[in-house]
Amino acid sequence: MIGGGIVGAATAYELHRAGVDVVLLEARRLGDGTSGNSTAKVTSLHGLTYRDFDPDTARVYGQANEWGLARVAELASELGIDCALRRKAAYTYAEGASDLSKVEEEVEAARAAGLPASFTTESDLPWEIAGAVRFDDQVEFQPVDYILGLAAELDREHPRVYERTRATAVSGGVVSTDTGFSVRAERVVVATQLPFLDRGLFFARTHIERSYALSLRIRGAVPEGMYLSTESPAHTLRAIPWGGEELLLVGGESHDMTRTKDRGGFAALENWARERFEVQSFEHRWGAHDFIAEDSLPYVGRLTPTSDRVLTATAMRKWGYALGTASAAILAETVQGRHHPWGDTFDSWRRPPLKTLPKALLHNAEDGVAFFGDRLRRGHEVDDLGPGQGRVIRSGVGQKAVHRDGAGVLHAVSARCTHLGCIVRWNEGEASWDCPCHGSRFEPDGTVLAGPATRPLEAREPPKEEPMPPRGVKKGTKRARQYEHVKKSEKQAGRSEQRAEEIAARTVNKEKARSGESRTASRSSVKDISSGKRGGKRSGSGPGGRTREQLYNDAKKLGIAGRSSMNKKQLLAAVNRKKGS
Q: What's the rounded Cα separation, in Å, for the pair 442 and 457?
């Protein structure tokens, strides 16, 4: 098993229970990906879904989800997994009359598929609704605790779960990893959300949507139900137990990662929450992206059409807990040489309906536009890049992804995603480099956060910054050159960086005042000018007469961990301790 999310853990457990010898590999930590960064609803109600399926597909889709939901609850009880599992009603609601007919159609289609659907105009939301689909006896839980519980069963007799072990290739039944070790297996299941192996072309058969979530403390009662709106972008909410109290989880603001940048992400979600609830505080925030097939069904089965030695499950939309658990049952049967009755409907090489072809062509065309268009974009400077911000800039014939850390220091990596070469984009809300084409994500230093990429972004030399003049002096002017000349002279005379800046700023201010260029500048204090923003860094004398930037650079050279979060005094103490040792 490759991948430690819900599909990987559930499939490994089902196989282990059937007596199959299983090893599970996870690149980071169990549940670190989308499985641990969602709204954690285990439900058969997926927005407005059943009305779009033919009756046979709707029936199988509903059966699979109902079985997956029941299996999660059954295993949590049977194995004694403490995962805050609670039974709740789930709702898809229309706030206005415009979507009411769609809600009514969903109720009828779901009932016809044998699902526990009912129509209601009642809810415990603090606003009126026009109507809603209601499914009773659905589930909410803590997914990471559940996954860890399944993993504990796998490890009960001897270690079978290996975290921080990234699979990098599969060939001839041998799985290569970034640890230098390899695993030989008769069958391999790739459960990495989207297969990191490109031979099945699943990256071209799905599109990506990114969503955001917040937990918050509100004044008044927290709604008991699990809710999803019909609006676009949709919003979802439910109660979550936390530290002996109930917080409210709100999510939404989904957007296509290729077609658009986020519409505001966390900020937009916070605004929506404030409009609907009396918010006391925001406690947590997280995001995730999901892969969606054009016919809205998961792909479960063979990675390639000619062999069943390597299997996969992907494209769970945003409903991977019940669907992923059902997919695990299909995969487990396939590994044991048996055919599952849901297998044909979710077959990874099924023929897609003709009506989905235009959407598939559009999404792949958008990937192409992103691939070539981002290479043609004009480069930008980094002088105005603030702490915590990132930007792709042109570097010769290529591009660099440049990020300024909390200490004001620039870092650069290659802007080319190591999967298929699309140009990454900075995700400011989550401080990561994200690939808009196929969903790979990277830490600011290039470390892989999420596949299908398996290799980090290569380190690059950060761009050199032009010195910034003091506030009120335009870059490239005579006064700016005078400022740098005076500063350089004072530093050569043995002045500290801070003292040289103060003298240079005072000199420029006097000259401006003398020439009548700026009365405001002549009245400015030295502190106003010299402590202004300088390329995203704030200057100022630190402990020992050194700036924080200088202390940070010393700490970086000495390899001191946690330096980005230290203040000046802490950096000085850490540097002195390291030098003393």
A: 8
Tokens 């299908």 correspond to 452
Is the four-CA dihedral 198, 204, 206, 210 of positive or negative sign? positive
Tokens representing 173? Answer: 């039944």
Supply the pLDDT for residue 514.
58
Q: Amino acid identity, residue 337?
A: G
Class of domain 377-460: mainly beta
Please write the tens of the pLDDT for every residue from 428-454. Answer: 778 889 888 888 889 889 988 887 888
Whether 147 contacts 35, CB under 8 Å: yes
For 1-40+142-203+298-352, CATH gives 3.50.50.60
Phi-psi region of 573 (alpha: psi -120 to 50; beta: other; left: phi over 0): alpha
Query: Cis bond leading into 358, ω under 30°?
Result: no
Say if CB 405 and CB 444 are below 8 A apart: yes
Neighbouring C-beta atoms of residue 558, cutoff 10 Å: 14
pTM (2 d.p.): 0.74
418: DSSP letter: T
- pLDDT above 90 covers a percentage of the chain that reads 50
* Ranges of each domain in the chain: 1-40+142-203+298-352, 377-460, 466-540, 542-581
